[in-house]
Every structure is written in C-alpha cells, then in structure tokens.
Amino acid sequence: LAEECASRGAEVTLVSGPVSLSLHNPAVKLVRVESAREMLSACEDVFPSSDVAVMCAAVADYAPRTVADHKIKREHSDVPVIELVKNPDIAATLGKMKRSGQLLVGFALETDNEADNAREKLQRKNLDMIVLNSMRNKGAGFGTDTNKVTIFKADGAREEFGLKPKREVAADIVDAIMSI
Description:
Blueprint: H1 2-7, E1 12-16, E2 28-32, H2 36-46, E3 52-55, E4 62-64, E5 84-86, H3 90-97, E6 103-110, H4 114-124, E7 129-134, E8 146-147, E9 149-153, E10 158-160, E11 164-165, H5 166-178
Parallel strand pairs: 1-2, 3-6, 6-7
Antiparallel strand pairs: 4-5, 7-9, 8-11, 9-10
C-alpha cells in the first residue's frame, strides 16, 4: 500500500512494526517501531500533518502486563501466569484526532459476522473507509500472495473484489481512497 501510494506521487511515511519488509520505492519514509505503544506514539506524531492515514498493521489487541528481561527457564520455575492488558486502539485514537478533510482508513480481519463487524468498526472508530479481510476466504489473508477484500465506506457504499495478487488489491484500495 505504501509503495502504491508513493508510485502515484504521494509523500508516504510508513510506520511499521517488527516485520521483514523490503521497500523498493526510496520515496517511502520508514519509521520502525517495536510495540503497539510505540506505534501509537509514532502515528500521533505523523497524523496531524497527514491528509490520509491507512491503518493496515495487524496490531495485537493485548500485550503482557510485564515483560521478562531474561529467558524464563522451564527447569527453575512453575508455569508462569501471564496477565494481559489492552493495547491502545490506534485507529480509534486517530479517529478522535481527525480534523475536517482528513481521511482515515482502517482494516478489519474478521472470522464471523464479517460485514456487520466491519461496519460497526467503521462507525465506532470514526473511519471514512474500512477494508474487510475474511479468514473464511481461501487464498486470502496472511501467508499468501493473494487476497480478497470488501471495502465499506462511511457513505454506505460497499464494493467486493475477487481474489487477486496483493499488489492489485493495493491498487484497488488506493483507487477507493481517491474516490472519497
């Protein structure tokens, strides 16, 4: 998505978590982060000067309350109990910050009630558009070079796309953003 936007002339800042990512367009400015809280902070820094924000990172909903600074060895301890805390909802936070004329695009990876859950997120997070990925679609989602998405817009418009290479999906998403 970042490279598709840059190829169309956009100034792009990509805030990315710890993933193996190789960028081919030198015009994309990369900001690397390690945690959801770092990602939130980086997004809060960049968002006020952005015209469009595309929130496509798969940020975990929860994180451990405490993080061990060393390996917890099986031989020397009982099975640890891991207490979880909610990670910040980055899209919802930016949705509250959004100014007039700014566009905010989110993603929803759903396993059931896909369309209803996507529409609810669109409204609750103050998004202008949401891209639905369903785990029910063969060849879509993670671990494949293809995807099949449905785009919902705040005006009620809905568009379903067939299974295609992810680069083509990115072009479809950018086309949809430009049509808002």
